[in-house]
Amino acid sequence: MIDAPTEMAPDKQSNAFVRRLPLIVIAIVAVLGAIFLRDYLTFDALSENRETLLAFRDANYLLTALLFIAAYVVIVAFSLPGATIATLTGGFLFATFPGALFNVTGATLGATAIFLAARWGFGEKLGAKLEGSEGIVKKIKDGIDENQWSMLFLIRLVPAVPFFMANLIPSFLEVPTRRFIISTFFGIIPGAVVYTSVGAGLGEVFERGETPNLGIIFEPFIIGPIIGLCVLAALPILIKAVRGKKGL
After folding, report:
1. DSSP, residue by residue, 96-141
2. Do 64 and 99 contact (CB within 8 A), yes or no?
3. In sequence order, which residues have a C-beta less than 8 Å from that of residue 109 and are 6 or more positions away?
4. Which of 15, 109, 118, 210 would be a feasible disulfide site paired with 171, CB 3.0-4.6 Å?
5. What are the residue ranges of helices labelled H in the chain?
6. What's the whole-number average pLDDT of the chain?
7. pTM tops 0.90
8. Terminal C-alpha separation, the chain
């Protein structure tokens, strides 16, 4: 009986390692990708291989679409460089529609993969610690819990929030997987449509020997409607705050 805790310790350590293994693999692949793929997932690489890509698409449209979505999933799931280039490629190969749909699908699947990996490795334990905490940390946790839909849409809509962080934060706050998937899919649509439409016009950009304007999302006619969506997403939080209920 006395030796039981000592015998269980290695098993607990082994289980902890197994649970964190997906995140460890993601981190390793992300580092290797940043080192070895940064010169391949670029606008110049897309420009140089555009004819080959278009020819392959014309001969194998369905296969190209499936391979593209799969590649997008891998890029997002492993936090590889080139997510923006992938979005542009979706527009270049498939036009704004269905290119935007392919982009959103790939990004959502990849985001869900890293969300689940983070939750499995750390999320449940960290969420329990936050729930048992006191003071300002507990108030923030409660505020997010009470306004999950609004907060999830906000972190997707606001361009300043890195996509990687928007995938990790919900995993630490016990957000249901279904809610994460829905808010991710619909929350990234505005930005995805903008960049996909830029990609759809890359043919002319290539012909002129120019580079696309990736800052277009911050143009008034684009950022204005997105800010409007952010306000709508934040409205339930504001209403609760005005009514004196808990809020952020």
Report:
1. HHHHHHHHHHHHHHHHHHHHHHHIIIIIHHHHHHHHT--THHHHHH
2. no
3. 69, 72, 73, 76, 77
4. 118
5. 4-36, 43-48, 50-59, 61-77, 83-94, 96-118, 124-131, 136-146, 148-157, 163-171, 177-187, 189-200, 202-208, 220-242
6. 80
7. no
8. 49
